[in-house]
């Protein structure tokens, strides 16, 4: 099962989004991750045979639809979902003028919670982000799927 292509590119139902260690571009991901063979299992054919399938499943290809304020967090030492994945998406959001914040967790591998202090930082950053971008029920739209 291939992960969803990024909910925030297909609806404006949510007031804010936060992602930890995202895969944003399957084509660049497979060349940088420490699990390239595992990644190949998500697709019916290798990227050199059916690149359109890999692009179709890449959230980066839908960033043009994103309006949602987005918080991105990744460990600098992450080899599973490398920092470059997070940076690609963050850069695209900023180029489009979407409110975005990138948090690099130094000395952190996959995830952002291997140290108790980083676990707390992750929770507090997300809590603060969501509180900062909260919408009341009266302003919530119902567009999208």
What is the compact description of this entry?
By secondary structure, this protein is an alpha/beta fold. The chain is 34% helix and 11% strand.
Would you kindly provide a written description of the structure presented here, covering whatever features stand out?
The chain has 145 residues and is of the alpha/beta class. Helix content is 34%, strand content 11%. The chain is built from five helices and three strands, in the order βαααβαβα. Strands 1-2-3 form a three-stranded parallel β-sheet, with helices on both faces. The relative contact order is 0.21.
Secondary-structure topology with pairs:
Blueprint: E1 17-20, H1 26-32, H2 36-40, H3 51-56, E2 70-75, H4 83-96, E3 100-105, H5 116-132
Parallel strand pairs: 1-2, 2-3
């Amino acid at each position: 099962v291939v992960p969803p292509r990024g909910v925030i590119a297909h609806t404006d139902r949510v007031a804010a989004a936060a992602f930890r260690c995202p895969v944003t571009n399957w084509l660049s991901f497979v060349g940088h991750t420490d699990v390239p063979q595992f990644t190949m299992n998500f697709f019916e054919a290798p990227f050199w045979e059916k690149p359109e399938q890999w692009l179709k499943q890449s959230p980066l290809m839908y960033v043009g639809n994103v309006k949602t304020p987005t918080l991105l967090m990744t460990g600098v030492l992450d080899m599973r979902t490398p920092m470059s994945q997070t940076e690609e998406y963050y850069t695209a959001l900023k180029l489009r003028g979407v409110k975005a914040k990138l948090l690099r967790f130094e000395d952190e591998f996959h995830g952002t919670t291997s140290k108790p202090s980083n676990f707390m930082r992750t929770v507090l950053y997300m809590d603060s982000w969501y509180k900062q971008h909260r919408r009341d029920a009266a302003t919530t739209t119902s567009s999208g799927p």
